[in-house]
């Protein structure tokens, strides 16, 4: 049952060098640079996004994900979910409005896979970049690089998939859209949706907690994904795999790394999901095809290169 | 008749070439002074070091430098501590050779937990 969680709101990513990271996320991926805050964190967004920012880069001595946040419908929902998280057994941290510039108060909790998640209800709305809300043109003409449209989802690696699913389903109203299951019935991968998208956050089973696999950004067409591949080669950016298609979600994709080794995806397509849909199940021995539909096998790096 | 050389502009700092010997793999490859050890290995076709993110983040290409001089770029402290770095335990994707090198690869896949900087002290949700 949906509980008022709307969509992924932002992800804070640790990078080794903020200038190199900015060249990557702004000039190559085409995110819009919004602001640098008093802590030196840089805020960016995809050009179609209405809220002020969706990506926060923080310079640190180890890359990875600090936290991923979801936006909820309103403050009443935020209070309701805060109570339910505490009742469920979560240690909920309150973060005051303005700690992220332009964002209202946030609540933070750690999922059983070890990842930090946040909920918030309010963020300054600066509108879609370059075209606004009134008689908008099709797209702004000064976009750079891959012209990424929006921050779409994260894929995270961790140990307790069942615990995280239970929390996300029962308290936050996410549904399981697709899953990979081994012969003993253990879930090895789970793709969770709180919207009509094929995934808003996904998890793959891994012995360590709190590992970051990738942050993903939406492109409009397969031609855009191919063009992203061209740009990756032109800039000698570290590639993981692609362009190719996923079996899971049917999205078309390419994976590459930012200059600190955090993996990024740009993709297009993907199935539509409604809450009455039964989960789509892949057998573990079809994992290769489920992830990379054309190669039909996983590259070692996809499973082991994490931050 | 004079012999004219190919008129490339003079490179202010000509590239130097060094030999990298991977002792525990019985393999070697050549690296130039402007490329990382890992990039040189990939370019040579050798398969002596694991390739991950190539950007100092994932720790897959950890090596032990046994002999030789090098410069290094910033690498994840989750995989290379200051102590490691001082002992020559480094990431091949962040190392630039400044002499011939002797290294070991791959035996360093120790299972120690990554020490990612803690973001907060929250306990995981328990029911």
TrEMBL record, chain A:
* UniProt keywords, alphabetically: Aromatic hydrocarbons catabolism, Dioxygenase, Iron, Metal-binding, Oxidoreductase, Repeat
Q: Which residues form the VOC domain?
A: 7-122, 150-269
Quote the InterPro entries the UniProt record gives.
Catechol_2-3_dOase (IPR017624), Glyas_Bleomycin-R_OHBP_Dase (IPR029068), Glyas_Fos-R_dOase_dom (IPR004360), GlyoxalaseI/FosfomycinResist (IPR050383), VOC_core (IPR037523), Xdiol_ring_cleave_dOase_1/2 (IPR000486), XylE-like_N (IPR054560)
Pfam families tied to this protein: Diox-like_N, Glyoxalase
Co-factor(s): Fe(2+)
| Enzyme Commission number(s) of this protein | 1.13.11.2
Q: Where is the signal peptide?
A: none
The UniProt record lists the keyword Nucleotide-binding: no
Enumerate the CDD domains for this protein.
Answer: 2_3_CTD_C
Source taxon at top rank: Bacteria
GO MF annotation list: catechol 2,3-dioxygenase activity; ferrous iron binding
The yes or no answer to whether the keyword Disulfide bond is present is no
* Catalysed transformations (reactions): catechol + O2 = (2Z,4E)-2-hydroxy-6-oxohexa-2,4-dienoate + H(+)
Stated family: Belongs to the extradiol ring-cleavage dioxygenase family.
Record's subunit section: Homotetramer.
What PANTHER family does the annotation carry? GLYOXALASE FAMILY PROTEIN
The protein's matches in NCBIfam families, at most eight in alphabetical order, are given as: catechol_2_3
What this protein is called in its record is Metapyrocatechase
From TrEMBL, chain B:
Q: Which UniProt keywords apply?
A: FAD, Flavoprotein
- Domain named 2Fe-2S ferredoxin-type: residues: 16-109
What are the TM regions of this chain, as residue ranges? none
Entry keyword Membrane: no
Question: Do you know which Pfam families this protein is assigned to?
Answer: Fer2 (PF00111)
Q: Which domain of life is it from?
A: Bacteria
Task: Give yes or no: UniProt keyword Flavoprotein.
Answer: yes
State the SUPFAM superfamilies in the record: 2Fe-2S ferredoxin-like
Q: Name one GO molecular function term.
A: iron-sulfur cluster binding
Region annotation Disordered: residue ranges? 108-127
What CDD domains does the record tag this protein with?
fer2
Q: What's the protein called, per UniProt?
A: Ferredoxin
């Amino acid at each position: 049952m949906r509980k008022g969680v709307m969509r992924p709101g932002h992800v804070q990513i640790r990078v080794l060098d903020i200038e190199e990271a900015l060249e990557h996320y702004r000039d190559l991926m085409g995110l819009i640079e919004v602001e640098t805050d008093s802590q030196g964190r840089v805020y960016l967004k995809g050009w179609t996004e209405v809220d002020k920012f969706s990506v926060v880069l923080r310079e640190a001595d180890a890359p990875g994900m600090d936290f991923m946040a979801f936006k909820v419908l309103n403050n009443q929902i935020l209070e309701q979910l805060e109570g339910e998280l505490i009742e469920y057994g979560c240690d909920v941290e309150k973060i005051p409005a303005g700690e992220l510039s332009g964002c209202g108060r946030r609540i933070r909790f750690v999922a059983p896979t070890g990842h930090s998640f946040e909920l918030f209800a309010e963020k300054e709305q600066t509108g879609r970049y370059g075209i606004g809300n009134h008689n908008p043109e099709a797209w702004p003409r000064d976009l750079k690089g891959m012209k990424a449209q929006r921050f779409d989802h994260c894929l995270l690696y961790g140990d307790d998939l069942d615990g995280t699913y239970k929390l996300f389903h029962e308290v936050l109203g996410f549904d399981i859209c697709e899953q990979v299951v081994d012969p003993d019935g253990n879930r090895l991968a789970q793709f969770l949706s709180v919207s009509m998208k094929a995934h808003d956050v996904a998890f793959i089973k891994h012995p360590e907690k709190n590992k970051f696999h990738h942050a993903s950004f939406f492109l409009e067409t397969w031609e855009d994904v191919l063009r992203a591949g061209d740009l990756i080669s032109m800039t000698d950016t570290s590639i993981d795999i692609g362009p190719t298609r996923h079996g899971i979600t049917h999205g078309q994709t390419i994976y590459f790394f930012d200059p600190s080794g955090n993996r990024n995806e740009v993709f297009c397509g993907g199935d539509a999901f409604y809450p009455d849909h039964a989960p789509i199940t892949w057998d573990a021995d079809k994992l290769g095809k489920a992830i990379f539909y054309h190669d039909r096998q996983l590259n070692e790096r996809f499973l082991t290169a994490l931050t | 008749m004079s012999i004219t050389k190919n008129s490339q502009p003079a490179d202010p700092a000509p590239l130097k070439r060094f030999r990298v010997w991977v002792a525990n793999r019985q393999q070697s490859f050549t690296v130039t002074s402007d490329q990382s050890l890992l990039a040189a290995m990939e370019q040579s076709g050798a398969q002596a070091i694991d390739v991950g993110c190539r950007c100092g983040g994932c720790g897959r290409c950890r090596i032990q430098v046994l002999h030789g001089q090098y410069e290094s770029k910033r690498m994840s402290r989750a995989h290379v501590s200051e102590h490691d770095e001082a002992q020559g335990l480094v990431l091949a994707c962040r190392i630039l050779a400044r002499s011939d090198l002797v290294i070991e690869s791959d035996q360093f896949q120790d299972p120690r937990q990554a020490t990612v900087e803690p973001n907060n002290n929250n306990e995981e949700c328990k029911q």
